[in-house]
């Protein structure tokens, strides 16, 4: 038996990096006032079909949807934002805004598996729900930048930002893009021809080489921004500078889902080959309404934990397991005082191990394999010898003295 294609087991160093990413993000988001929410792994299909837009690849190609035994259409969540917005409405929280939400967990998309991309993958993300101010955009980006720094992967990662404008800006820009791409429609890929009819801005994100040549000469949104949209984008950039977050403009960023407006951004790197985006998001001002709630301007981002973990591995940032203390009973009669000692160590927050079998030599070999920092030899009378396995120093200690010495 093997894992299903596009899934994998997380064991050893992989599991430690995965855990470190989640815990670092959770702690950092807490410093910014974000509270963790846990939403279901599956939702009514309408949550994603309505929320993500039917022109997105996620909805049109990648969702794991099925009919359950009750005849309802259910979808394994392909991303976290739509579920968070549904939860905001379902739990009656639209009257207590803004809500600052952190989430972490598995997502599911039927994609072609490759390095750093899986069909079951994991994301961390934050959302500020109910804040229309550009400071909110800058703060969520600053939080993401701090997480990357705390993970030790910020070097070689660049923040690229763009504006998608407000409704009036996008309508004017859409017309300009339709004119540009229609003139060369016969050269567009099949997917881009479909996008030309539904959402021409998505063509800017095409990876097809033929499309990219046409995209290179497409107009940018700047000439079509309303004064209000331009001022919003200027404010976001000003706040990022005040937060000390470096960035560069990329007018081709559009993001892959249909609900974005105003700010769009990606943290990108060249250290992962083709899979260069490690964190991305933007502002979405209509998604909560799609869930049946009131108009709720919001902004957030998501990051793939697999890619962050892979980036940690590339830069050599590999969290190590805690070095245990090996408790070694000297003879069968010494097992009872040894067990009492190991419980006292664990209750004091000290990682401690005791072998289930073997003589002194075998137990010491096991302690060395575990990279134990110390060994506590216990005889049948409960007398304890503490040996520092780095220096080799050994001395007699009481139970309390052993706990005190190892607790530091």
UniProtKB/TrEMBL annotation:
UniProt GO cellular component terms: cytoplasm
Documented EC number(s): 6.1.1.21
Record-annotated membrane-spanning stretches: none
SUPFAM superfamilies given in the database record: Class II aaRS ABD-related (SSF52954), Class II aaRS and biotin synthetases (SSF55681)
Keyword presence, DNA-binding: no
Amino-acid positions noted as binding L-histidine in the UniProt annotation, renumbered to this chain: 79-81, 109, 123, 127, 255, 259-260
Family to which this protein belongs: Belongs to the class-II aminoacyl-tRNA synthetase family.
One GO BP annotation of this record: histidyl-tRNA aminoacylation
Assembly, per entry: Homodimer.
Catalytic activity: tRNA(His) + L-histidine + ATP = L-histidyl-tRNA(His) + AMP + diphosphate + H(+)
Protein's name in the database: Histidine--tRNA ligase
GO molecular function: ATP binding; histidine-tRNA ligase activity
Record InterPro entries: aa-tRNA-synth_II, aa-tRNA-synth_II/BPL/LPL, Anticodon-bd, Anticodon-bd_dom_sf, His-tRNA-ligase, HisRS-like_core, HisRS/HisZ
Predominant cellular place of this UniProt entry's protein: cytoplasm
Keyword presence, Transcription: no
UniProt entry keywords in alphabetical sequence: Aminoacyl-tRNA synthetase, ATP-binding, Cytoplasm, Ligase, Nucleotide-binding, Protein biosynthesis
Organism: Rhodovarius crocodyli
Subcellular location per the Swiss-Prot or TrEMBL entry: Cytoplasm
Domain Aminoacyl-transfer RNA synthetases class-II family profile: start-end pairs: 33-329
């Amino acid at each position: 038996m093997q894992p299903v294609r596009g899934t994998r087991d997380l064991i050893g160093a992989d599991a430690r990096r995965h855990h470190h990413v989640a815990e670092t993000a959770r702690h950092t988001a807490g410093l910014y006032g974000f509270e963790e929410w846990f939403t279901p792994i599956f939702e009514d299909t309408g949550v994603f079909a309505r929320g993500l837009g039917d022109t997105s690849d996620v909805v049109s190609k990648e969702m794991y949807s099925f009919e359950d035994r009750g005849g309802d259409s259910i979808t394994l969540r392909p991303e976290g934002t739509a579920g968070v917005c549904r939860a905001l409405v379902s739990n009656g929280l639209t009257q207590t805004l803004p809500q600052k939400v952190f989430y972490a967990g598995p997502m599911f998309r039927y994609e072609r598996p490759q390095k750093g991309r899986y069909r079951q993958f994991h994301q961390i993300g934050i959302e500020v729900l109910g804040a229309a101010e550009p400071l909110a955009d800058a703060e969520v980006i600053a939080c993401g930048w701090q997480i990357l720094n705390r993970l030790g992967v910020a070097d070689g990662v660049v923040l690229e930002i763009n504006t998608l404008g407000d409704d009036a800006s996008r309508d004017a820009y859409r017309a300009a893009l339709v004119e540009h791409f229609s003139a060369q429609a016969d050269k567009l890929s099949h997917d881009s021809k479909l996008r030309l009819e539904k959402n021409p801005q998505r063509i800017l994100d095409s990876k097809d080489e033929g499309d990219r040549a046409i995209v290179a000469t497409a107009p940018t949104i700047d000439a079509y921004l309303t004064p209000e949209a331009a001022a919003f984008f200027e404010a976001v950039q000003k706040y990022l500078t005040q937060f000390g977050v470096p960035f560069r403009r990329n007018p081709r960023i559009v993001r892959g889902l249909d609900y974005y407006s105003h700010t769009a951004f990606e943290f990108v790197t060249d250290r992962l080959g083709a899979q260069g985006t490690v964190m991305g998001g933007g502002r979405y001002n209509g998604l909560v309404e799609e869930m049946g709630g009131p108009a709720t301007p919001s902004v957030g981002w998501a990051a793939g934990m697999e890619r962050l973990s892979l980036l940690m591995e590339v830069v050599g940032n590999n969290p190590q397991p805690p070095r245990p203390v090996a408790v070694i009973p000297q003879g069968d009669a010494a097992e009872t005082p040894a067990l009492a000692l190991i419980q006292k160590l664990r209750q004091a927050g000290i990682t401690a191990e005791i072998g289930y079998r073997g003589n002194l030599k075998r137990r010491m070999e096991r302690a060395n394999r575990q990279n134990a920092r110390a060994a506590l030899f216990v005889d049948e009378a409960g007398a304890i010898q503490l040996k520092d396995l780095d220096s080799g120093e050994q001395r007699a200690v009481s139970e309390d003295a052993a706990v005190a010495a190892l607790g530091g």
